[in-house]
Design brief:
Chains A, B: InterPro entries: HTH_HxlR, WH-like_DNA-bd_sf, WH_DNA-bd_sf. 2 copies of one chain form a homodimer. By secondary structure, the first copy, chain A, is mainly α. Chain A contains 5 helices and 3 strands; from the N terminus they run ααβααββα. Chain A binds a DNA duplex (20 and 20 nucleotides) through helix 3 and helix 4.
Chain lengths: 128, 128
DNA sequence: CGGTATCCGAGCCGATACTG
DNA sequence: CAGTATCGGCTCGGATACCG
């Protein structure tokens, strides 16, 4: 299994370290998407594949395994044919989603500002 | 200039997308560390280098440029000898730090739980 | 349906050396 | 003091093909 995250080891005593760890967890191109898609309730593999636009089967699997590993979601296999697997957020993950709300608010407040800042920066310094 | 982040383009309409963008911004091994180190007030390059344990000159520069590009910090050059450059968080970044507080709280609440979940997962599935 | 295996390019990041 | 340049390893992540 590939997908080992960067070693965000202890850079400072406590605060920043814990924060860096959680950010590292929801980093990567797909984790947030999966977390949000699963927020509504139990969801199947193929449903996730459709919900998270652009994700490949491989990356969905890896992302799910990582989240499962961190105890953020559960994987339930139903022994039926055709196979059926459901993923569901744990309570911990639901709390995480709530904690992320503040961040989402910030993002939506300053979205255009940041886009503008980028444009300016790229204009002044050479990026084209 | 290297350091182009992964393309977290529109995966779903609004919410998750904005969130994914901000997470992408504070991703990478060092951004959080720099953000936290600069939270106390204006800080010089070398001070940052010491504050963010383990960071290289190169990565500090790249991280600073990215944050500056996104309008999260300002770079002030004082024309003196020896050179003096100060970095300071913008108001937007300060708001961001506040929004991150909820996340930090979550991280500290569930830190051990998650570490445990990992251990269990790695024990059951083969990771060794 | 729900995965895995393999190949491969792109970019992050560290080490090292050099500069105004 | 505050950077930049270059090289190279490693991992992330896409494409494709295959399996129970």
């Amino acid at each position: 299994m590939s997908q080992r995250h960067t070693d965000v080891s202890v850079q400072f005593g406590d605060h920043a370290c814990a924060l860096a760890e959680v950010v590292d967890r929801v980093s990567g191109k797909w984790a947030i998407g999966v977390l949000v898609a699963a927020a509504a309730g139990p969801i199947r593999f193929t449903e996730l594949e459709r919900a998270v636009e652009g994700i490949s089967r491989r990356m969905l699997t890896l992302t799910l395994r990582n989240l499962e590993r961190d105890g953020l979601l559960t994987r339930t296999v139903y022994p039926v044919v055709p196979p059926k697997v459901e993923y569901e957020l744990t309570d911990v993950a639901r709390e995480l989603n709530e904690s992320l709300a503040g961040l989402t608010a910030w993002a939506e407040r300053h979205r255009t500002t940041i886009a503008l800042a980028r444009k300016e920066y790229d204009a002044q310094h050479g990026n084209g």
